[in-house]
Amino acid sequence: MGAFHPASVAPARIALDEVAAFGSGLNRPECVLATRAGDLYASDRGGGIRHLRPDGSSELIGGSPALIPNGFAMTREGNFIVANLADDGGVWEIRRDGTTQPLIQEIDGVALPSVNFVWLDAQERLWICVSTVRRGDHQFRRDIADGFIAVRDAQGTRIVADNIHWTNECRTDPTGKYLYVNETFGRRTLRFTIGADASLANRKVLTSYGQGTYPDGMAVDEDGGIWVVSVVSNRLIHVSPQGHQTIVLEDLDLAHVAQLETEFMANRLSRPLVYDNHSTKLKNITSLAFGGPDLRTAYLGSINDDRLAVFTAPVAGLKPVHWDW
Known about the structure:
single chain, mainly beta, Neuraminidase, four-stranded antiparallel sheet
């Protein structure tokens, strides 16, 4: 991994024709993980994790009807910890043999609702992101900030930050000092200082986004740049550690975004409007994973495509903890 440069340089714009496709027959590949061996793993609406091998073959690991896998992490043993987006929620484990079971069903005495994302950091602590405790269709409101972040480590599982406006993906920076998290319908990226006990402090709005940007997934590169993926507008935004934004990739329908903005501002935004696809090539991208032998191949997950979008990144991604597992 290269040296960490806090003043990371924004990359040049990536044209849509530079984006290729990888894989086939995927089912809502919202989240993607890559390993040094060339294996890719994607969440699958069929209730499991899809393993895409370097030779082009694939298989579904698991397949529980109780699961809508969203974010997931791979453990040292090669199993998967999965955020369950279904109403019954919780954090689940899918083992390599397909065995599926609940792992975390409550935190601090509160039953877990739908869980959006989980992330394993360099110390193998599990970060858990719950977007909202509300159920039903009208969750995407400007006036609700009831999401939270929890952590699971050797000391147990506990909530470490709350009052978050639709908690989505999180990542640590290259130093391990900070945790970034996207507030999708707060249209912000937050930054916390991570304590030695995994507590979160010094909450700061790193950057706020404007019309049409709804920050969903993210990835961090080796220079500390944060690559933020906006659902609906199919935007990929590079955010510097100081919060400066640069749109790197974009594929949106202006009329659709305008309609969504109207509904969002009126607190009427519904799931179908967010999930519908209106674009030229990208089909509602939601996440990014750096892979390839040099960590410069970028894979984009989505909620509507049956393949992954892929392009060559101008900078290497930060090596994830599972890279050599």
